[in-house]
Design a protein that fits this description.
mainly alpha
């Protein structure tokens, strides 16, 4: 990834992580924008719902911030032991963030479409994390790396959600918020996953090219 895009990528991650930390853990989280919008459609939210929300916010922020270190090839090659430690912390984040996100999806704004969109996001987030963990456990490093790219594209939905949300509110207004949120429940992660597949294919092509080029050099007569 070019330095400019990597900078933008990390800037958005830090901005959203700081926003969530301030909203939920420095200020009164019960008055966060997400909660207030939720109360526009539900008269009351249970104490358990708030507990799960805070668990989801905390563990998702951890995964969001740590994720770039787990998928960075440069960091991995220079800091393999730290990469493994951060990878374990990342997985713990998803271990709590995934089920809590799935629970929250049943209360998602946007009707059945919104609930299904966020529900599938949580399910695929957990499945891809399991596949990534299983890959490294079985020493299938390439598979592990590919699944981590897919997984972090879903983690990054925390960022893309907050890009689409103000854009849709600006374009369609609060009166159409429920419909907008139903669409965003899919836009937040499906394009990310498509982009992840394109990155994986590009990496595979580059790897095959380098491998074939190395073979040609070795075979070249001296």
């Amino acid at each position: 990834m070019k330095k400019f895009y990597w900078f933008i990528f990390n800037f958005l991650i830090i901005a959203v992580a700081c926003y969530l930390a301030v909203q939920y853990f420095i200020m009164d989280g019960t008055h966060a924008g997400f909660v207030q919008m939720k109360l526009m459609f539900l008269s009351k939210l249970s104490t358990f719902w708030y507990i799960v929300l805070f668990i989801h916010a905390a563990t998702s922020v951890v995964a969001l911030v740590i994720g770039p270190f787990t998928i960075s090839r440069r960091f991995r090659e220079k800091n393999i032991s730290r990469h493994r430690i951060l990878g374990r912390i990342y997985m713990v984040g998803i271990l709590f963030g995934g089920p809590s996100g799935l629970y929250l999806s049943f209360y998602a704004t946007g009707g059945l479409v919104g609930k299904t969109g966020f529900g599938l996001l949580s399910i695929f987030w957990m499945i891809s994390a399991y596949n990534a963990f299983n890959g490294v456990k079985n020493m299938q490093i390439q598979e592990h790396q590919n699944w981590m790219i897919r997984n972090y594209s879903l983690t990054f939905a925390a960022v893309t959600l907050r890009i689409w949300l103000p854009l849709f509110v600006w374009l369609f207004g609060l009166k159409n918020f429920e419909l907008s949120y139903a669409v965003i429940s899919w836009l937040a992660w499906v394009p990310n996953l498509i982009m992840a597949e394109l990155v994986i294919k590009q990496n595979l092509r580059k790897s095959h090219y380098q491998k074939n080029n190395h073979i040609d050099i070795v075979k070249e007569p001296t």
